[in-house]
């Protein structure tokens, strides 16, 4: 690895949830000594009412708002970012974050699928067909069909296709008989399947560079992939999209905000050097969609050792009816397959969020378990039969640690049988109303405090201004304790626990 990751801890923050709008009530502060001794006008001690009661403590850790741990990265190797994705992290520009799923109202689940195993549905096929028809135009399609009909080779192929259809009819009969024998409902049709090659053909079918011309298609559609640099044209598309789709104020969409969000990246542009990935592109890219020369859509993508990761997708709202999001996902899966990237990461999946539903429609997808950081099939979290289990039952669900799952707590709702916060109360014996360190917050998927105590945090490489050193050279570092509030040891230890000790021990930490 030639690139060394350079990071700086930004700490744990709570804020408004961008999905449901919930905010977190500030955690109760412990009474100060002088407040404890405060007296009322009659001179009586007010002591008892300033003590933090159990209800307040519980309120402070009840899921509400968005709670995340942040790190800024000036440089991040693609290998390290791959590790972070697989630990539930994401990036926005140069800011990296991992949500505390257990304590946030809308838990974010990392979702991915193995690109070669993607099973298209009829829906994907009709979306691709509709777009191809629009781009190519009726005239072009007819002319090409006329030309092709003359082709003898094609006639042979047609014959083979007919045979295949006949085989499909036979397969359906077999499936029906099997269902009858098993006492199950007979299928009315076999699920439509597109083989890998067919999906690739459909995705590329409308690209000008692949067309046989003349005749000329109705529109000239071009796709290019370039480093995530700023251009005014991209910015104008972004502003239109944010205003029209996300109803944001035009005045808030500045060059700077666009650059920070979708152009800047800590990932260096590199190419694969090993036999297995020679020449493969890595880094942050913009995939541009041009129609008759005009920029109509743009995908922001991270190309990493094990995946194509979708960062963002924006398009001209004029083309909204063509389901651009779905088209782009199909195109990105094809990019992953053709480029040799094993997985396609669709970002985060939030259950019960309408805008995220389409992400569940790219089988066979997997979700990252928030407790164990292991990927499991989507069905383990969201049962295909819609039964009242997994995320259908729990707001926060872990397949590997099911006892950690929590339901929404509503004492007024008779549908909720049991206090879902029972385990938290137990965990909080001796809790004084403050979060002394990250482990107090019971953030899932981080390295346990016991393990962090064993970690040689003093060996971490640090940079202060222009000076390179190791943490142990900082005054008092070896004397401080990982649990000590505001100590540098604690900041380092927390960051290593959330990012993974292997990433932080190899990085340079800027202070
Ligand atoms: Zn929310």
UniProtKB/TrEMBL annotation:
One of its GO terms (molecular function) is arginyl-tRNA--protein transferase activity. It comes from the Eukaryota. GO terms for cellular component: cytoplasm. The keyword Transferase applies. Residues 233-369 form the N-end rule aminoacyl transferase C-terminal domain. Its EC number is 2.3.2.8. Pfam families: ATE_C, ATE_N. Residues 36-125 form the N-end aminoacyl transferase N-terminal domain. InterPro entries: Acyl_CoA_acyltransferase (IPR016181), N-end_Aminoacyl_Trfase (IPR030700), N-end_Aminoacyl_Trfase_C (IPR007472), N-end_Aminoacyl_Trfase_N (IPR007471). Keywords: Acyltransferase, Transferase. Residues 24-49 are annotated as: Disordered. This is arginyltransferase. It comes from Ascobolus immersus RN42.
């Amino acid at each position: 690895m030639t690139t060394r990751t350079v990071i700086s801890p930004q700490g744990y923050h709570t804020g408004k949830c961008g999905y449901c709008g919930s905010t977190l009530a500030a955690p109760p502060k412990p009474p100060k000594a002088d407040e404890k001794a405060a007296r009322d006008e009659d001179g009586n001690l007010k002591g008892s009412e300033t003590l933090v009661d159990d209800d307040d403590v519980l309120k402070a850790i009840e899921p509400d708002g968005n709670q995340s741990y942040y790190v800024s990265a000036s440089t991040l190797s693609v290998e390290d970012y791959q590790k972070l994705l697989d630990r539930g992290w994401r990036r926005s520009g140069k800011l990296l974050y991992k949500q505390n799923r257990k304590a946030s109202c809308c838990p974010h689940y990392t979702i991915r699928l193995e690109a070669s195993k993607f099973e298209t549905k009829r829906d994907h096929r009709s979306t691709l067909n509709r777009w191809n028809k629009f781009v190519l135009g009726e005239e072009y399609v007819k002319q090409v069909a006329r030309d092709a009909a003359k082709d003898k080779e094609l006639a042979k192929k047609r014959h083979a296709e007919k045979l295949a259809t006949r085989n499909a009819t036979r397969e359906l009969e077999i499936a029906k008989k099997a269902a009858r024998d098993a006492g199950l409902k007979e299928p009315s049709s076999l699920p439509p399947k597109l083989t890998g090659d067919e999906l690739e053909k459909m995705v590329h079918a409308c690209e000008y560079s692949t067309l046989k011309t003349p005749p000329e298609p109705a529109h000239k559609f071009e796709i290019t992939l370039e480093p995530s640099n700023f251009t005014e044209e991209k910015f104008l598309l972004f502003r239109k999209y944010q205003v029209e789709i996300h109803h944001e104020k035009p005045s808030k969409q500045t060059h700077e905000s666009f650059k920070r969000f979708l152009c800047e990246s800590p990932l260096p542009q590199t190419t694969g050097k090993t036999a297995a990935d020679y020449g493969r592109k890595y880094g942050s890219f913009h995939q541009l969609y041009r129609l008759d020369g005009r920029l109509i859509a743009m995908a922001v993508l991270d190309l990493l050792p094990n995946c194509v990761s979708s960062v963002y997708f924006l398009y001209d709202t004029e083309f909204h009816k063509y389901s651009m999001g779905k088209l782009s996902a199909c195109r990105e899966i094809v990019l992953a397959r053709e480029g040799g990237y094993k997985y396609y990461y669709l970002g985060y999946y939030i259950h019960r969020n309408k805008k995220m539903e389409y992400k569940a429609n790219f089988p066979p997808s997997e979700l990252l378990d928030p407790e164990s950081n292991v990927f499991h099939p989507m069905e383990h979290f969201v049962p295909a039969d819609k039964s009242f289990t997994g995320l259908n039952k729990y707001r926060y669900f872990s397949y590997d640690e099911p006892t950690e799952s929590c339901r929404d707590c509503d004492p007024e709702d008779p549908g909720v049988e049991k206090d879902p916060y029972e385990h938290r109360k137990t965990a909080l014996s001796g809790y004084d109303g403050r979060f002394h360190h990250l482990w107090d917050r019971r953030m899932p998927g981080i390295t346990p405090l016991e393990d962090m105590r064993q970690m040689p945090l003093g060996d971490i490489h640090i940079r202060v201004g222009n000076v390179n050193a190791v943490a142990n050279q900082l005054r008092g570092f070896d004397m401080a304790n990982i649990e000590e509030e505001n100590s540098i040891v604690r900041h380092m230890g927390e960051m290593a626990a959330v990012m993974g000790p292997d990433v932080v021990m190899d990085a340079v930490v800027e202070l």
